[in-house]
């Protein structure tokens, strides 16, 4: 709540004065908010994978966190939609994307599949929670019964036939989410990969690194939530083992990305890579991302592999520092002049590549993160997200 209050100052400033309040420019049009968008995008991946393994492949060990994972997908997609809508600007004009669509635009398809994923997971979450919602709506001891009665849509009883129908609906929605999810993540990665004059983005390793890193951060979030709300040590140990493997793969891919790009020996590519490793924000890569966000968690997961609490702390470090990885991906490739002499041709604050997020950008980011956290906490408090997972063995 405090983050929402503080962040509202920046949000009001942005809504009143527009993008002139941001530190973006002609050469760096994508900044902190796009990085935060990719951060939220990564967090959806782990929860998405859990729902697939639970309701499509029927892996029972994850059944207890199935509803929690589905609800997590909804919250993180809403958060990423809010931040990217603010970044694009003029959110009230969004309808024009569908009245006058550009089918050749990757951003159009990104929006289509993002909305499709949101609708699928709202429905899936509802059908997973419906039994508990109906029971709560008829319980005199439950506070705010009218809310649950409205969510129950007039139903006062939940039969075995209803349960079987909801099982089939959840499975169908989970099956549908596989192709939609692949296009969802693929279109988001393609928004970066199709830009030919951005060599760090336009790489054969970028889509793979994008997916693996998303699974690492998203899986770490699920471990953290499982420890906080379910405390299922068997699930935590299994997921932590998977994350440890994916984290090693991510670091190898990251090394190959740098190694291959340096071998090209192209000036603006080398300059962009040098900005990541040796520029003003070298600490963002070396200290925050590599040490705190990768090596320390990897060490903890190897040495304390049987300690659920330590594994949860390791995953907290991964999630908390993952924004550093996204910043290192989004900013440096834009911060290099692609034409010789361009830096001396024109002089203006909006024609510089020395980008530093300003106070408004940080405050709005704080507002969106706080809103997402508040929505998640309220959901776990007032919706049967945790309770619905207790009988999920039959659901899979």
Strand content: under 5%
Series of secondary-structure elements, N-terminal to C-terminal? HHHHHHHHHHHHHH
Shape, principal axes of CA atoms:
globular
The whole-angstrom Rg is 22 Å
Helix/strand/pairing category: mainly alpha
Terminal Cα span: 37 Å
- Total DSSP helices: 14
Residue runs with pLDDT of under 50 for 5 or more positions: none
**Number of domain units:** 2
Helical content (DSSP H or I, runs of 4+): over 70%
Number of strands: 0
Mean pLDDT: 87
Please, what is the oligomeric state?
single chain
Secondary structure topology:
Elements: H1 2-17, H2 32-55, H3 66-88, H4 96-99, H5 106-137, H6 145-151, H7 160-193, H8 205-230, H9 233-264, H10 267-278, H11 282-303, H12 308-330, H13 342-345, H14 359-382
Helix pairs in contact: 1-14, 2-3, 2-7, 2-8, 2-12, 3-5, 3-14, 5-6, 5-7, 7-8, 8-9, 8-12, 9-11, 9-12, 10-11, 11-12
Description:
By secondary structure, the protein is mostly helical. The chain has 2 domains: 1-16 and 29-197 and 356-396, no CATH class; 199-337. It is built from 14 helices and no strands. It has helices at 2-17, 32-55, 66-88, 96-99, 106-137, 145-151, 160-193, 205-230, 233-264, 267-278, 282-303, 308-330, 342-345, 359-382. α1 (2-17) crosses α14 (359-382), α2 (32-55) runs antiparallel to α7 (160-193) and α2 packs across α8 (205-230).
Question: What's the gist of this structure?
Answer:
71% of the residues lie in helices and 0% in strands.
Output the keywords.
396 residues, 14 helices, 71% helix
